[in-house]
Structure formats: structure tokens, C-alpha cells
Amino acid sequence: MKIEASSLSFSYGMGKVLDSISFSAQDGQAIAVLGPNGVGKTTFFRCLLGFLKPSEGSVIVDGRNVNDYTRRELAHKLAYIPQSYSPAFNHTVLDSVLMGTTASMGLFQSPGKPQIDRAMAALDSLGIGKLAHRPSLKISGGERQLMLIARALVQDARILIMDEPAANLDFGNSFHVSSRIRNLANKGYTVIFSTHDPGQAYRYANRVVCMQGGRIIGDGKADEVLDEAMLNSLYGVKTAVRSIEVNGRSYKVCLPI
């Protein structure tokens, strides 16, 4: 399934936030979107999701304009995982995931065994099946992010858009969430996620998009795009990029200097 933005622009009042962005993504890609605060990453995501209507250009999802879908139809194409989530009610993890099945059911239909089986399969695939009956307010932030990803998976959406999914997580939870994001791309999902950590882009993305001033200024493989000059330009900090070798495998790291 393909998502494509063509000459996409968006303004809040007289202030242009996105300026003629063209972008496309296909199955099996894990795409990290980087850029300093205020460059339009969240607005870009909202346009891709159909939450905002661009002032110019278009977003095409699976051959059709995103604004021509009903919300129910679009739920089978795109899923959104927010940066943070505080449940209003203390539903169990399983019940929270089952909310993602509503787009596939009638107005007064309740989830049955097929939906429960799908929800459990999604939780198991992310390694948190044992949390199914735990209250969602009694799990860690990383586990809650994985719960939201499971909810997106049971929508049957093949394009997952994530706004800083590892933000505010400790080192271990950040690793677990980021690793599973890359695994989803390996399984054929399209995953587009924003991050402020170049290290996550090096390790977990097979493509990087760099944004500055409402435009895309870099797009390609992380090793090729995220060099010292690009990081200096994005963040205004002189940065050293180095390769380290661990157990015969090479990793890129960056340090502000």
C-alpha cells in the first residue's frame, strides 16, 4: 500500500508551516522523520492522516485522495499512534486494544471471539500478551506505547504513523518499542515515525526524512543522509558522527561537540 504527498503546503493563517512537500512511502519501510521543534513534523503527519486539509497539493492513500475516505474507511488504511497517552478510564489492556476493532463492526455490535483473538495475537506479537488483563493505568509508559501499537494493528491498517513513539521512555523501554517498530516494517507494514534522536534513526529506520523550515531537505538512507553537516544544519550544534563495532557489527553514533 502506498501513501504519497504531492506539492503539499499548509498554513495557519498567514504563517506557512509546510511548503511544497513531496513524499511517498511503500510497504516495508521504517521512515524516521527528523527536524527541530516547530518545523512542521506534526502538521505533516496530520495532513497525511487527513486531520488537516492542505492549502495546496494532495495526499493519496492507496490510489485515492485521503479526504475522499470516510473515517471508517480510512481506519483500515492508516493508524495513528500519539506521542503520549493517558487513559481517561482504567480499561484493561485487552479492552483498550479491542477499541481498534470498532471500524470493522456495526454500530451496536460488541467485540466477540474473533476480535478478542485478533487483539491477543497483536499483543503477543509485541511481547505484551501477559498484560492483557492488567489495568492500562498500571503498566509502564513503554508498555502503554506497545498497547497503542497493538490497537493500531487490529484496525488492519498497513500504514502506521507514530509521533515520537519512544519519547519520555527510559532506556530499556525505548529500545523495546523501537525494536518492535522496525520488526513491523520487516513484516511489510509502512511505519513513519518522528524522533529527535539520530541514534534511533541510524539503528531502526531504513530511510530518513529531514525537515527544516517546512520543507524536506534530506531523504534517503540514514547512513547517507544523517552526516555531520546535516545534523549541524538541523540542530545548530556541531556534531561528530562515528562508527563503532560491536560483535562484528557496525553502528553509527553521534555526539554534540
Describe the structure.
- The chain is α/β, with parallel strands linked by helices.
- The protein has 2 domains: 1-77 and 158-222, P-loop containing nucleotide triphosphate hydrolases (Rossmann fold); 86-156, no CATH class.
- Helices cover 31% and strands 29% of the residues.
- The chain is built from 9 helices and 12 strands.
- The chain has helices at 41-48, 71-75, 93-98, 113-125, 141-153, 171-186, 198-204, 222-225, 228-235; strands at 3-12, 15-25, 30-34, 56-61, 64-65, 78-81, 159-162, 190-194, 207-212, 215-220, 239-246, 249-256.
- Strands 6-7-8-3-9-10 form a 6-stranded mixed sheet, with helices on both faces.
- Strand 4 and strand 5 form a beta hairpin.
- The termini are far apart.
Tags for this model:
257 residues; 2 domains; 31% helix; six-stranded mixed β-sheet; alpha/beta; four-stranded antiparallel β-sheet; Rossmann fold
Structural class, judged by helices and strands?
alpha/beta
Largest sheet: 6 strands, mixed
Percentage of residues assigned to helices = 25-40%
> Which CATH class of the largest domain is shown?
Alpha Beta
Indicate how many domains the architecture comprises.
2
Find the CATH topology of the largest domain.
Rossmann fold
Shape descriptor reads globular
Strand line-up across the major sheet:
6-7-8-3-9-10
> Would you identify the CATH architecture of the largest domain?
3-Layer(aba) Sandwich
Low-confidence parts: none
DSSP strand tally: 12
Outline the fold blueprint.
Elements: E1 3-12, E2 15-25, E3 30-34, H1 41-48, E4 56-61, E5 64-65, H2 71-75, E6 78-81, H3 93-98, H4 113-125, H5 141-153, E7 159-162, H6 171-186, E8 190-194, H7 198-204, E9 207-212, E10 215-220, H8 222-225, H9 228-235, E11 239-246, E12 249-256
Parallel strand pairs: 3-8, 3-9, 6-7, 7-8
Antiparallel strand pairs: 1-2, 1-4, 4-5, 9-10, 11-12
Helix pairs in contact: 4-5, 5-6
